[in-house]
Amino acid sequence: MTDTRTPAPLERLRWETLRLEGSATVRHVVLNRPRVLNAMNDRMKRDLHDVMGKLDLDPACRVVIVRGEGRSFCSGADLKEGSVNPTSSVARLMRRSASGKRMRELIGEMAPITIAAVHGHCIGAGAALAAACDFRIAAESASLAIKEVPVGLTFNGVIADTVHLVGVQHARELLIFGEAHPAGKLLDWGYWDQVVPDDQLVAAAQAFAERLLAVPPIPAQLTKLSIAAMVRALDRPVFHADPAGFALSARSKDTSEARRRRAPGEAPRWQFE
Length: 273
Prior knowledge:
Blueprint: E1 18-22, E2 26-31, H1 42-56, E3 63-68, H2 90-109, E4 113-118, E5 121-123, H3 125-132, E6 135-139, E7 143-145, H4 156-166, H5 168-177, E8 181-182, H6 183-189, E9 194-196, H7 201-213, H8 217-239, H9 242-250, H10 253-259
Parallel strand pairs: 2-3, 3-4, 4-6, 5-7, 6-9
Antiparallel strand pairs: 1-2, 7-8
């Protein structure tokens, strides 16, 4: 039997790890795990996928601003869930990685234009979330790092977006060394569209959204979707391998070695297996 019930208004819906604010035309999706600096767990991935899917189907929604509650945008994957436990099965590791991949694909391909408003820590999964958005505005406090390689992991899902944003050579530096970079440096590299004082971040994102509202909606969305289709077609040779690459690297002996505490001056003993 067909379910003919009217869906609940978005204002009445609740998510465990997110909060929805803003107006019908400009929605704010707020990451809401401030006690752990908005570390991304499996629940947050599912919540993001759910809310973005609903906003994608909402004809009134023109712009979505993604931001974080508390001191940081997102401090990366929640390691307390054991998402990179080398003893986990390959299937389990692949499923966890695939859920993040689906969420980022949806954000990149949804009709409303997306803006990441980033402050504080923006690490790993947080950087991937910001990169999946159409525009990125950073507070002066924003510090971005993609730390997977130094801890023995691959993160194919962020490679393509990073290359598009900063170019091949800067992407190598960001992705291979995993060092934190201040907002001003990444503004020069092209990662951020704007850098503003921390107390002006939300207002700056809202002002950017208002600029978008002044543009005719149909050609704006069609242009966004055409760009996404072109970019994703080039990305898929790398992006599709993200779950398998993550599982392979997570099970590697070198991942355990990367995390092993070593004496000062002791060199790592890589086994390449």
